[in-house]
Amino acid sequence: MNTLNSACAMLFAALLVIVNSGDVAAQSYWNLGAAPAELASYGYTNGSMFLDDDTATYHVAEFVPHAGHKPPEVAIVALHKGDARAAFVAFEPAQATDGSGASVTGRRVAAAETERFNRVVFPALARAYPRLAHAIRLHHFVYAKGRHFQPTRGYREWQESTKTGHEQTLLDLLWLRDIPSQPFAPHPRLMQGVPAEGLPATIAEATRERAPLEISARGGSAPSVAVPPMAKPAVSARRERTAGTASRGIDLYVDLSHYSRENLHEEAVAGSRNNGIVVVAFTGEEEARDMHRIVADHVRAGALIRSVMRAAPEAGMRFDIYYNGISLFRSKRSSRPPAGSLDAELKPIVELQSIDIRMAEKQKEIDELERKIEAMDRAFELGDDPDINK
Length: 390
Description:
By secondary structure, the chain is of the alpha+beta class.
């Protein structure tokens, strides 16, 4: 799903499958034509520039939110011109809630940025592409102009499973309005406040876990690169194994509905490593809490379930279960779990976990015995050494 990191892009469907074709102009639903070299170097096939100012070079590009989605959507792709510590957009301090439900100081998109988007950026887009003048939803993806970075581990896994060609973004925003006559506003979560790690403000923040990458300006996907080990997730889902404790005392619930699908996947992968389980609920809060109560029963019985993550609702997907860093349903598009089946799907995973944990404990005992035997053998060797026992 951070990613966080990933420049912790926000919840708004930044897991993109870019349209690829030899006849790109014919394939462009929005009549954008082939992407210019600079935009193509980030992996976009169709698109064009509509604004170039002191802040960024702005392009409009086609993408599909997930495999099979038709028709493609459009995104504003901003190639940020500032240095590593220059803000992508204007932010201001705001109260937010961390993964444990505690109040923390976060940030939100500043009113000045919203005013600038409606006064400068969107009018330029509407002039260049009148067809988009009536849009009520616009994605806004930020990259560093002329700079490229390795993807996080989770994003690379997504690229491999979906054949996504575009480079991972540094920041994702989503602009919304109810009717075309209204001005745009950021997604409500971006107006209320998000923990700082979920809304990276600069290149330096967005690339803490991503090394620089040199690629040539061209179309298609970025070259395959080795992905460095992923650092500790921004929202830790780790919990100690607990038994006989009320669910309220082992609160595993984490609201990550503001995370992009890919960043949430990264969190779930990280949180479920080393024989752990993470449950992701693609539902509203009430149903997610119901799933949390089911999970709490298993935790009281001794299961090592580290987190229940609430994700943004997704069509056809009620929940997913991650075990030992692997999703049960992410790659099985034809066998998604039905609603109400969480307990049935969870039980065999809990049983497998119990076996794996016991085996791991036995292996530790075996390793310790082997170390003791080696020490004894060494002691006997020294005891037989004539030079030592003169």
